[in-house]
Specification:
It contains 13 helices and 24 strands. Helix 1 (61-72) links the parallel strand 8 (50-53) and strand 9. It has a 7-stranded mixed sheet. With 403 residues, it is α/β, with parallel strands linked by helices. Helix 7 packs across helix 8. Helix content is 34%, strand content 23%. The protein binds MU-OXO-diiron. MU-OXO-diiron binds at residues 84, 86, 88-89, 151-152, 170, 230-231.
Length: 403
Amino acid sequence: MASGNGNELMIKDDIFWIGGDDRTAGLFEGSFPVPEGVSYNSYLIMDEKTCLLDTCDISVSAQFWKKLRATLDGRKLDYLVINHMEPDHGAAIVQVIETYPDVIVVGNSKTFDMLYNFYQLKPTNTLEVKDGDVLSLGRHSLRFIYAVMVHWPEVMFTYDEKEKILFSADAFGTFKALSGSLYADEIDFERCYLDEARRYYANIVGKYGAKVQNVFGKLQGTLIDMICPLHGPIWRSQSIGYIMEKYFRWSSYEPEEPGVVIAYASMYGNTAAVAERLAMLLKTKGVRNVSVHDVTRTHPSYVVADAFRFTNIVLAAPTYNNSLHPAMSAVLEDMGIMAVQNRRFSVIGNGSWAPQSPKIMEERLSAMKDMTKVGETFVIKSSMRPEQSEDLAKLAEAIAASL
Ligand code: FEO
């Protein structure tokens, strides 16, 4: 066993977590707020041959190097397996190769194309692997499983046949930094991480549900005792079924539970008032799960995540320059990109003289796959009139009945 590093970082005999937490991150991928941070996981196998599985993001580079050097404890690095080339895992590749010039870089043909495109790097020592190829490190044999488009085309999983560990790249990962524990089964994952895990899945991998399902097919019959993702906690035997079930549901675009996400944009509070009133009406009709977002203040990724979670979507927005309020337009853009589908939707529009927003929202939602409209589109002109109360109650009734 390697010395110089705490045993708490050894996740199995010979295998170490050498990642780091970033709690200062601004926008993940330049797009997604991560107010609770994010972890970048990297793993090192200390066998007869030493093998590093992915590197890290630049933000945790110091943590990564400290752990890597301490765990290697003077040994050289024999292999660097690149499961995913995205720079949040590849930022240290160049320095690793410079530091360990004999290292053999393991990847597939797309990996090496990307290595050149990102870093103009053509390593001297490479091992190009095909789907299903096996590499022996001594006691451990690593099988490579292509996982195309989970999340990029070069992605592959690495399976340790001795310990039955799946190194799963981005899959089964989550936003939110680790909080003292490496393992999902040591924390109240549902309370502390599930919302961020869903937001991560829906916005990072959500578009590629069919590809995720393909990989599930490839993994059938493979015994998995541990899943080591590149973000978030590690999954051990008793918790693996939980995250597998979530991923299977998300990737098949099945909602997790009955419920309604109400997302609204409002300029002067009148559209917001209707949305909030609808939420209260739904509650009076016994709808337990109602999630309300003001999209002028909330990042679209939270709405997309709730769209993956719940059965029903309600969008409410004013007309703006004879078109749709731009904040709602951004939400619809993201919902379309991330392939939101198989949901029920309702629309609330506002327009002081020529309401265009209801038509635009309905068209854009209808263009998504397997979407079903619920209730009559509710339109206000500037503000809701008292005589419209009955129609809003009818919309709430229709939504509640559809759950
Ligand atoms: Fe965590 Fe697709 O990178």
